[in-house]
Amino acid sequence: xxxxxxxxxxxxxxxxxxxxxxxRGLAPDFPRAVLAELDAIKGAATESDANVxxxxxxxxxxxxxxxxSRDLDQLTTSEALSDGTVKILIAIADVDAIVKTRSAxxxxxxxxxxxxxxxxxxxxxxxxxxxxxxTSLNFNADRLAVVIEMIIDMDGSMKSSVVHRATVHNQARLxxxxxxxxxxxxxxMPPEIGKVNGMExxxxxxxxxxxxxxxxxxxxGALVLETIEAKPVxxxxxxxNLEPDTHNRAKEIIEEFMIAxxxxxxxxxxxxxxxxxxxxVRIPKRWDRIVALAAKQGMxxxxxxDPKALEDFLVSSKKTEPLRFPDLSLxxxxxxxxxEYVVLVPGGNDEGHFGLAVKDYAHSTxxxxxxxxxxxxxxxxxxxxxxxxPYAIDELESLAQHCTEAEDAAKKVERQIVKSAAAILLASRxxxxxxxxxxxxxxxxxxxxxxDPPLEGRLESGFEGMDVGNxxxxxxxxxxVERGFIDFKRVx
Length: 492
Description:
Elements: H1 7-23, H2 32-39, E1 53-55, E2 63-65, E3 74-80, E4 86-93, H3 104-112, E5 116-117, E6 122-123, H4 128-134, E7 142-152, E8 158-169, E9 173-175, H5 176-183, H6 191-194, H7 199-219, E10 229-235, E11 238-245, H8 249-271, E12 276-280, H9 287-296, H10 307-320, H11 325-336, E13 340-344, H12 371-385, H13 393-426, E14 433-442, E15 445-451, E16 454-461, E17 471-480, E18 485-490
Parallel strand pairs: 1-8, 2-9, 16-18
Antiparallel strand pairs: 3-4, 4-7, 5-6, 7-8, 10-11, 12-13, 14-15, 14-17, 15-16, 17-18
Helix pairs in contact: 1-13, 7-8, 9-11
C-alpha cells in the first residue's frame, strides 16, 4: 500500500482518539492537581540507607525494548555460575518511590489503569516527566529498582529466587529489531553492545537461557501462538502504511524473563501471607469450537480443555502449515477469551493462566504504564520491609475489577484508531477483494480479519453459518474514518 495519510489526517486521528478516550470513560488529559503535584517533583528518587537498598550499579544492565519506547520499565543482566546454572537479574523501575498511594498522580493513574498507545498519539498513564524520565530506567542514569534474581538450571527449571531493592545503572539502551537480527546472524552487532565489556556475552547468555525457559513452559503446555498486529509506519508526521508487527528472538528474551518474574512475584507475596492481584485466562468457554478446528486438520483433542493437547496441535500445525498458522493462532486466541485481574488471598485457589501454562502470574514488570503492576510493586515493597499491606482485600478486589474493565476499554480505543487509520488508507480500495478469516461470530455481528493491512472489519452480509476460524473471500464495501468502521461482504 502506497497511499499516505497527510498531516491533516494525523490531526484528524488525534481528534478521533481523544473522543474515543472520553467515550470509553478514560481520561485523555492530566488534571490540574496532577500537574501541580508533578511540578513539585524535581528529580529521581534516591535511597541513602544501604541496609535497605543494595548498590548494583556495576552490573551489566541493559534495556531491551521497541525502537521508539521511552518508558523503560525493566533492565536485565545475567551471570554464568560455576555449577552450570545461570543467574538472571531483572530490575523493575521503582515507580512507587515517586508516585505515592492516593496522591493526585496515583488517583489519575488508577482511573485509566494503563497507557493507551494509538496510531496518532500516546495517552500515558503517568505524566511523561515521570514515565520517560524520572521513573524510567534510562541509559546512563542511576535509578532505584525492585530487583528479581533467579537461578536457572541447565534444563530451564528455576532452582531459587530472591526479591530485593537496589540502585541500578543502565549501561546499554538496545532495541528488539537490531538485537534480533544480530542474534539470528543476519545483522551486525549493535554498536551499543560493543561499547560495554562483557555485554555481548551477557546478552548471548540471556538469549540461551530464555530459550530454555520457553522450551520448558511449552513442555508444560504453554501455547505456541503467533498473531500479526498492525504497526503504524511514519515518514515524519505522515503515516504511510500499516504493516505487520512481527515477533522475534529478542522479544522472546523479555517475554520469558517477564513471565518468570511475574511468577516469582506472585509466589513471593504468597510466601509472605500477602494477597496479590493475578492476571488469569480462565479455561476457555468455547473449547468445543477449538476441538472442531483441530478436527478439520485431522487432529483429535480431548472433550475437556487440555492445554498440553492444544499445544501439541498448535506445534504440529505450525510445522505443516506455517503460512496459515497466524490465522489459526488468532482463532484460538479469540476462543480462549480475554484475561482478567483477580485477587488471590494466600491459600486460595489460583486458576492460573491457561495460555501461558503457569499457575502463579501477577503483573509486576511494567509499573510505568500499567496500574496492576504498580499495585504489585507496593505489595512487594511492603513485604520486603515487613510492613502491613497497603491495600485492604475489598479495595484490591474493586481495583482488580476496575483494571480489567479499563484495560479492555483502552484496547478498544487502540483498535478503533488503527481501524480509523486503515479506513483512510483503504478509501481508494472500495470494491477490492481479500482473503479473510472469521474472528468473531455472535448476535451482535460477525467479524473478519484480512492480512493487507492486518486488521478486522464487520461482515455485513453473507455471514450465515460462519464461525470463528472459517476462511472466506470478502469484498470491501465501505469505510467510516470517524467511527473506525470497515465493512465487508462475502464473495461466494
